[in-house]
Amino acid sequence: MIDRILDRSARVIEIALALGFVAAVLLNFGNVVGRYLFGMSLLGSDEVQIFIMVGMTFVGAAVVTQRNQHLRMDVLVRFLPEWMQTLLRILEQLLLIALAGLVVSQSWFYASRMMMIGRKSDMAGVPMWIPHGTVAFGFGLILLLAAWRSEEHTSELQSHLNLVCRLLLEK
Questions:
Q1: What pLDDT does residue 164 have?
Q2: 45-67 and 129-170 helices, crossing angle to 10°
Q3: How far apart are CA 127 and CA 136, in angstroms?
C-alpha cells in the first residue's frame, strides 16, 4: 500500500517537473524571440531557468530513488549469495540515509538563513530560500525513501536468516 502511494507521489512530482521544464523552455524561447526580434530580453529569465533546473535536479533525484533507477556498480554483487546482496542493500540505504541527512541539515540551515535575511536573486527578485530549499526538499524525500527501503530490506534479510536457521536446525 505504501509503495503504491510512493509510486503515485513520484508520478505527481514527475508531472510537476515536466511542467517546470516546459516553463523553462518557453521562458528561454520567449527570451530568444525578444532578444533577436525586438532587441530586448526578459529581465531575470536566465536566473529563473537556472532555479527551475536546480529544482528539477534535486527533486527529480527523489523520483529516481523511488524507482531505484540510479546508477549502480553491481557487476560483482550479482555473484554474491542473496542474503549478502540484501545486506549490501541495507548498508547502501544506511549510507544514503547518513548522506541525505547531512545534506538536508546543511541545506535547510542555509535556506533558512536566506529566508531570515530576506535575500533575493539579483535580477528576477526570487527569494533565494526557494531554490536553496529545493535541495533540502529533494534530499528530505530521498531520506524518507531510504529509511522506508532499509526497513523493507531489513525484513527481507530477517527472512533469509530465519530460513538459514531453520535449515541448520533441521540437520
A1: 66
A2: 10
A3: 15
Q: What are 7-54's pLDDT values in tens digits?
A: 999 999 999 999 999 999 999 999 999 999 998 988 899 999 999 999
Angle, CA 96 vertex, CA 49 and CA 8 arms, to 5°: 60
Nearest to 30 by CA among 42, 14, 20, 44: 42
Q: What letter represents residue 56's amino acid?
A: M
Furthest CA-CA distance within the chain: 85
Q: What's the predicted TM-score (pTM) here?
A: 0.83
